[in-house]
Write a structure and sequence with these properties.
Strand content: 5-15%
Distance between the termini: 104 Å
CATH architecture of the largest domain: 3-Layer(aba) Sandwich
CATH class of the largest domain: Alpha Beta
Number of strands: 6
Largest sheet: 4 strands, parallel
Mean pLDDT: 80
Length: about 375
């Protein structure tokens, strides 16, 4: 029991009102009200006076109390009258306090639930579904070779894999470790645009479409080699699973392959206005855009993103026509000698091909 409660009890035991006690102590009634409510503590003079009035010791009044804060009555602000609390009022206050605690508890619980659920619907929903799925989608890795490179169908790859070289076949090793890795084959000496079109066709199992506008501008055929849907590098690429997860790919390009995968990601996202204007509704899906979420990542290795000094050497030395002549000659020799299994130049768009389709390539 503190001093405030003792003053109130002793006053009531003497059947005094707050006004009567205030008159005996020569203070205002508001001062007595503040003492009993605990808003203020009487000074030492008033404590001695109350001890004499109530016939108790000062120790009784001050027992188990911290050092009192002495407040001068003349400096206290006038307060509104505070009548004594009745039991019903105390019960009502206690009930209100319990209700306030319940409200706070409900608000805190709601905040916790919102914090836990929000990530599932903003950026983390697909990942969450993938984790609880019994068969989550594993985005495959597509390896794209550089200038002069070759794919797994080449006999060169049997002796010296492009991806792995003398250390072994990197794709086979990664697949044995549980990764899904596919190796693409595109024109070793073709332009970035042509290689990108070939990569898209191989990924989707469709016929290569170099685009009407591009083909006319560069003097070659619009269509090239044809791939079958059954042998597409990625089955159902871009579609969604039953749980709503998009089937995406991770693109990895080495050297000139880095430029190829970058252009593929760009065309998938933004398309090409010239091709859409040239063919309208018949435009290849590669050039229509709106598929940026089909690509999960793009990784390049030793790629000439800022150009290559080799171009200036070839251009200033006027070696472009010479190199093209050598490439065409080599492609012609390989075609006539049926060396497509050894090294495929993939110049179908220029009428020089070792195999015009997968079925013919399999027969060779």
């Amino acid at each position: 029991m503190n001093i405030s409660e003792k003053i109130q009890i002793l006053r009531r035991d003497n059947n005094w009102s707050q006004d009567e006690l205030a008159e005996k102590l020569e203070v205002s009634r508001q001062s007595v009200s503040k003492w009993e409510s605990g808003k203020a503590v009487p000074d030492s003079e008033k404590i001695l006076a109350m001890a004499k009035l109530f016939d108790v010791s000062t120790d009784f009044l001050m027992k188990d109390e911290q050092e009192p804060i002495f407040v001068d009555d003349e400096q206290q602000d006038a307060a509104e009258d505070q009548p004594d609390e009745v039991p019903e009022e105390k019960a009502e206050k206690k009930k209100n306090k319990l209700s306030a605690k319940k409200i706070v508890a409900i608000v805190v619980a709601a905040c916790i639930v919102i914090a836990a659920v929000t990530p599932l619907f903003f950026g983390g929903y697909s990942a969450f579904l993938a984790k609880i799925s019994e068969d989550p989608v594993q985005y495959p890795y597509i390896l794209v070779h550089g200038l002069g490179g070759w794919g797994p169908e080449s006999q060169i790859d049997q002796a010296s894999p492009y991806w792995g070289s003398s250390t072994g076949n990197l794709a086979e090793y990664l697949n044995s470790e549980g990764y899904n890795v596919q190796v693409a084959s595109v024109g070793p000496f073709s332009s970035t645009w042509d290689r990108t079109c070939e990569l898209y066709a191989e990924l989707t199992g469709t016929r290569v479409d170099y685009g009407e506008a591009h083909s006319k501008a560069h003097g070659h055929e619009r269509y090239g080699r044809e791939y079958t849907a059954e042998n597409a590098l990625v089955q159902n690429w871009g579609e969604k699973t039953k749980r709503g997860q998009r089937i995406k790919i991770n693109l990895v390009g080495h050297s000139f392959g880095g430029e190829t995968v970058r252009l593929l990601a760009s065309l998938m996202a933004y398309g090409d206005e010239a091709e859409k204007a040239a063919t309208g509704k018949e435009t290849s899906e590669l050039f229509t855009g709106g598929k940026s979420d089909w690509v999960n990542s793009v990784t390049t290795l030793c790629s000439p993103h800022n150009g290559s000094t080799l171009f200036y050497v070839v251009d200033q030395g006027k070696l472009v026509n010479t190199i093209l002549g050598l490439v065409y000659a080599a492609s012609g020799i390989a075609n006539s000698a049926q060396l497509g299994d050894f090294y495929d130049f993939r110049l179908d768009q220029f009428g020089m091909n070792n195999a015009t389709s997968e079925s013919q390539a399999a027969e060779l």
